[in-house]
């Protein structure tokens, strides 16, 4: 309800209350006046009749009865009585009970506003002798008719005033609305429609003095709005940029990436749609970089990296290419309408830029990038594509290689049996596998071993109802992400010790770095090895050389615990972490596996030859075997 309507309604209610109060007061005053008149009439008539009957000439019973009858016939009294001194009625005239035809007032009105029955009595004497008492009661028919007529007139007058007030309110409402329309609303609308540099129409002279100040305020407000319009427009443009842009690198942000990918996956028409590939790459050591360098240097490095990657994308895709920063360490871009081979080439070109932009992190070596690639089709749920990227990223982080991890959607569905690769699905599967003991150990001869009789063991997961078991290559990356790698590695060691009990030779098992970092895992593993010392002496634990560089103290402590139980240690991917040469004497591994990349590069690279020679010399000094026949 508008303020004007509220004001007029409140005034109308006040008028109605006043009119109702006036009716009540007027009718009440009239009733009191009529009561007083009836009482005065009764008293005066009783006095006059008593004096008349006190005259000696009127004391005859016949004359007395005649006088009373004459007075009763006047119709002004309802009851007239003459009583002797003992109270016995000598003469009585009374109207019969019932509806009096002279009363025009309705019964409900008589019950609502009753008049009192006024009685009066006087003594009749003869000198000092009392002859009797005259008692009479006035008839209120005329008074009731007068009260009814007066009330009807007052109500009709009040209704007439109310109707006139209603008409006045309607006229007033129309006039006020028109005044507001002409003097306020029109100017506000003009201010809303006016451009930033336009002036308002000239100020009119409002019909109400109060509106003149309002019109002037509107004009001043328009001037202020016009003065700040350019600034607001600039801020809006800035906010639009911030909404879809990362403030540090100037690249697109996560919201822009999600919206663009959703637009490609959800075409507006069934025959429309765009397929293609999505690449995501993550800087795994951003926290360490922030601790090593200042914020300004890191921001400048990220901006430069983003600029170089974007240049590569624009060379391959055109000027419409874009790169998004999803969070602090994750970057992604979309390759629409691009087949797999071309997408892999673009991903490799981006990977070369990223490898060239790596930063030295002290003794831990260069920072690491993890790169993943997957495809998408029109109509595919956005969550499936993002889950596939997350699955590929978990694999890349677990594998530790510097190549692009390519995971097509069809491959993931065939490997996981249509289960999908989201964290929740993996958490449920791994929890059930640990609770229901679905794990087994797959073994094969280790082709890269320097000595005969060594077997490589790999943990597998046998889900009931699945056509094929899942290898550790598939489920260990999610286990590391979900914090379940320690439990899985304990399962692998337990199954390996059981295998050694029934098989000859040595067994090689891989243990993830994430498990070694858990103190509880080291304690449970020590207890497991202590129970089977004969089998522990034939067990070899294979570790990634990166762990010795990144988590030196934990790996050295883990190696010492293994030596206490007779378990030997091996290092793989040694060529990718040459800094590990500094710490080999602390763990004294059984063997060092050098990748084929370093072996292939020694023919053309003097540095590769020197590095390989240093590895061989160090291995001989600590009594380890340098395995040059296998990759990572």
TrEMBL record:
Entry keyword Membrane: yes
PROSITE patterns reported for this sequence: EAL, GGDEF
Protein name as catalogued: Uncharacterized protein
Organism: Castellaniella defragrans (strain DSM 12143 / CCUG 39792 / 65Phen) (Alcaligenes defragrans)
Transmembrane segments: 6-27, 154-176
Pfam families the UniProt entry points to: EAL, GGDEF, LapD_MoxY_N
Molecular function GO labels: cyclic-guanylate-specific phosphodiesterase activity
Keyword annotations from UniProtKB, A to Z: Membrane, Transmembrane, Transmembrane helix
PANTHER family to which the protein is assigned, alphabetical: CYCLIC DI-GMP PHOSPHODIESTERASE PDED-RELATED (PTHR33121:SF79), CYCLIC DI-GMP PHOSPHODIESTERASE PDEF (PTHR33121)
Ranges for domain GGDEF: 274-409
């Amino acid at each position: 309800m508008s303020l004007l309507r509220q004001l007029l309604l409140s005034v109308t209610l006040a008028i109605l209350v006043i009119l109702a109060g006036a009716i009540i007061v007027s009718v009440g005053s009239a009733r009191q006046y009529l009561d007083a008149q009836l009482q005065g009439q009764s008293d005066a008539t009783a006095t006059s009749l008593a004096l008349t009957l006190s005259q000696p000439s009127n004391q005859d019973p016949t004359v007395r009865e005649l006088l009373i009858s004459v007075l009763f016939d006047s119709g002004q009294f309802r009851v007239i009585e003459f009583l002797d001194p003992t109270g016995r009625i000598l003469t009585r005239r009374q109207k019969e009970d019932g509806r009096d035809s002279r009363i025009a007032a309705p019964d409900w009105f008589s019950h609502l506003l009753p008049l009192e029955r006024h009685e009066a009595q006087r003594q009749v004497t003869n000198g000092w002798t009392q002859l009797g008492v005259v008692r009479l009661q006035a008839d209120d028919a005329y008074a009731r008719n007068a009260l009814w007529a007066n009330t009807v007139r007052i109500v009709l007058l009040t209704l007439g005033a109310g109707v006139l007030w209603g008409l006045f309110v309607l006229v007033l409402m129309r006039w006020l609305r028109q005044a507001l329309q002409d003097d306020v609303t029109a100017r506000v609308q003009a201010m809303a429609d006016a451009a930033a540099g336009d002036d308002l129409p000239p100020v009119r002279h409002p019909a109400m003095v109060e509106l003149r100040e309002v019109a002037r305020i509107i004009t001043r407000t328009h001037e202020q709005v016009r003065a700040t319009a350019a600034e607001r427009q600039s801020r809006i443009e800035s906010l639009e940029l911030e909404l879809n842009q990362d403030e540090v690198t100037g690249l697109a942000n996560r919201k822009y990436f999600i919206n663009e990918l959703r637009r490609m996956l959800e075409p507006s028409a069934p025959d429309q749609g765009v397929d293609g590939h999505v690449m995501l790459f993550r800087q795994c050591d951003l926290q360490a970089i922030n601790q090593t360098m200042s914020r300004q240097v890191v921001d400048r490095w990220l901006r430069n990296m983003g600029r170089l990657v974007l240049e590569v994308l624009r060379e391959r895709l055109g000027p419409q290419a874009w790169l998004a920063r999803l969070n602090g360490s994750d970057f992604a871009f979309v390759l629409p309408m691009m087949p797999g081979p071309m997408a892999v080439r673009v991903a490799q070109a981006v990977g070369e830029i990223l490898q060239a932009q790596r930063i030295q992190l002290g003794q831990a070596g260069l920072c690491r990038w993890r790169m993943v690639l997957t495809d998408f089709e029109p109509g595919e749920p956005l969550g499936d594509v993002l889950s596939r990227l997350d699955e590929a990223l978990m694999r890349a982080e677990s594998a530790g290689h510097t190549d692009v991890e390519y995971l097509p959607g069809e491959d993931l569905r065939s490997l996981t049996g249509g289960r999908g690769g989201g964290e929740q699905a993996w958490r449920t599967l791994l929890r059930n596998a640990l609770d229901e003991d679905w794990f087994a150990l797959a073994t094969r001869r280790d082709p890269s071993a320097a000595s005969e009789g060594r077997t490589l063991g790999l943990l597998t997961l046998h889900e009931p109802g699945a056509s094929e078991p899942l290898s550790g290559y598939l489920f260990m990356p999610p286990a590391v992400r979900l914090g379940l790698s320690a439990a899985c590695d304990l399962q692998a060691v337990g199954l390996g010790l059981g295998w050694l009990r029934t098989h000859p030779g040595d067994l090689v098992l891989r243990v993830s770095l994430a498990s070694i970092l858990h103190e509880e895992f080291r304690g449970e593993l020590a207890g497991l090895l202590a129970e089977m010392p004969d089998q522990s002496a034939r067990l070899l634990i294979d570790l990634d050389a990166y762990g010795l560089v990144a988590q030196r103290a934990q790996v050295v402590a883990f190696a010492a615990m293994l030596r206490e139980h007779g378990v030997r240690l091996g290092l793989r991917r040694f060529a990718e972490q040459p800094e590990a040469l500094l710490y080999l004497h602390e763990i004294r591994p059984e063997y060092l596996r050098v990748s084929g990349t370093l072996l292939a590069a020694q023919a053309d690279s003097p540095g590769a030859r020197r590095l390989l020679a240093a590895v061989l010399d160090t291995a001989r000094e600590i009594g380890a075997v340098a395995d040059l026949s296998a990759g990572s």
